[in-house]
Amino acid sequence: MGKGILLLTILWMWGLFFAPHPVVAETPSRDTVFTDRGVPQTDGARINPYRFAVFSGVTIGLSAYGIDQFQEIWGHSTGKFHFKEHDWNGDNLAQSDEVSHLVLGYKATQLGINFARWTGMSEGLSRAIGAGISAFYMTLVEYPIDAYNPCQGLGISDLVFDYAGVGFGLLRDRYSFLRPYDMKIELKDVRKVPKKFFSQSNLEYDYYIYWLTYSPYFGDVPLNLGIGYSTDHSDWRNVKRELWLGVGTSVTDIGYLFGTRWGQRLDMWGLLEFSLRVQVLR
User: Fold this and answer.
1) Are residues 213 and 109 part of one domain?
2) Is 2 exposed, middle or buried (0-12, 13-18, 19+ CB in 10 A)?
3) Which of 179, 206, 227 is the last residue of a domain?
4) Number of domains in the chain
5) Fewest Cβ atoms closer than 10 Å to its Cβ: which of 64, 189, 220, 255?
6) How far apart are CA 217 and CA 271, in angstroms?
C-alpha cells in the first residue's frame, strides 16, 4: 500500500508540473503591516525546477513518514470496511482528537501553500496545491487507512474537522481580515514531551493545549490573545474538559517585529504558542 501511495503522489506531482497554469504577480494594495500580510507576494516567475524537485521530495517523504507512523501507532488496515463506533464520544477523548485534526489540517494546508509558492507557482495555483495535498492525505488517513483498521474505523467527525482545518488555511491565506486569527498548540507541561509528534495514548492527548489566537497589534506588539482547549485523563474513567484564557506569543508574532517580509516567511512555522494562561473551566 505504501508503494502505491508513493506512486500516486509521484504521478500527481508530475501532472501538476506539466499542467498549464496562470502566472499571477500580486502586490500589496494597502500600506499597513496587517494588510501587507494579507496579500502574499510572488514574482510571477516560472516554476523553479530545482525548488520544485525539493517540494516534490519533501511532500512524498513527509507523506510516507506520516502514513507509516499512523499505522505503527494505531494499527494496520487489515480488516473490513467499517465506520468508527460512537464516533463523537466513544473514544473517551472529549473531542481533543477532533480538535487535533482541525489544527493538523490547517497547518498542513498552510505549509503546502507556502511551500508551493516558494517554487514559483502562482498564488491561485499555490493555494489549490496546498489545500489539495492536505485534503487528499487527511482523507487518505480516514479512508482507506482507518476505515479498514479493525481498531479504528472511518470517522465522519474526524473528516469534518479535517476539512474545516483545510478550509480555514485556504481562507486565511486568501483574505486579509482573517490574518490576525491563528491556530496553535502548546505543551501544558514542558516536562512532559511526547516521544513522537502524534499522540499514542489518551494520556498523551492531555499534553497539548490547542489555541485559537487573535493578534490585535501585528508588527507593533508581539503578543496575542487566546482561548485554549485541552483534556485531563487523570481519572481515566471520567475525562475532563479544560478551557483556558491566555496572553502569548509565537514565532509569527515575533517575526513581524522585523518587518512584513520576515513575518510572512515565519508565519507557517508559528505552530507553537508560548503563553501566560489561566484555567477557566475544568
Assistant:
1) no
2) exposed
3) 179
4) 2
5) 189
6) 19
Backbone φ and ψ for 72, nearest 5 degrees, come out as -65, -40
pLDDT, position 31: 35
Cα 213 to Cα 61: distance, rounded to the nearest angstrom: 31
pLDDT at 19 over 50: no
All residues at 6 or more sequence positions from 95 whose CB lies less than 8 Å from its CB, including other chains: 88
8-22, 97-111, 128-142, 248-262: least confident range: 8-22
CA 105, 106, 108, 112 torsion-angle sign: positive
Strands of the sheet with 181-187, listed across from one edge: 181-187, 208-214, 224-232, 240-249, 274-281
Residue range of the domain that includes 144: 1-179
23 touches 122 (CB < 8 A)? yes
Residue 205 sits in the same domain as residue 168: no
